[in-house]
Amino acid sequence: MNNPLDQKVLDYLKSSQGSTAWAMTGAVGADRKEVSKACQRLKRKGLVKTCWFQKSFWKAVAA
Fold first, then answer.
1. Which domains does the chain have, with CATH numbers?
2. Can you tell me the distance from the alpha carbon of 25 to that of 43, in angstroms, rounded to the nearest whole number?
3. CA–CA dist 44, 29 (Å, integer)
4. In terms of domain of life, where is this protein from (predicted)?
5. What is the distance between the alpha carbons of residues 40 and 24, in angstroms, rounded to a whole number?
């Protein structure tokens, strides 16, 4: 992974049961907009997904 923020977001989501981009801001040290972009990049790679009940809630895909 060539973006350090993407790795931080992925690591955070793997260590939790999921989160919103806003809630991850403190844990990964970036603003909500950048965290959201990282989530979108990870989604395109198939590494994270949104929950069926709340599209702003992100979860890591089980490997």
1. 4-60 (1.10.10.10)
2. 18
3. 22
4. Bacteria
5. 14
- Measured CA to CA, the distance from residue 16 to residue 38 in angstroms comes to 17
pLDDT of the residue at 1? 67
DSSP 1-63: ---HHHHHHHHHHHHSS-EEHHHHHHHHTS-HHHHHHHHHHHHHTTSEEE-SS-TTEEEEPP-
At residue 62 the predicted structure's pLDDT band, cuts being 50, 70 and 90, is: confident
Q: pTM, whole model, 2 decimals? A: 0.89
CA distances from 2 to 33, 39, 41, 49 (A): 19, 14, 11, 20
pLDDT tens for each residue of 37-59: 999 999 999 999 998 888 889 99
The one-letter code for the residue type at 32 is R
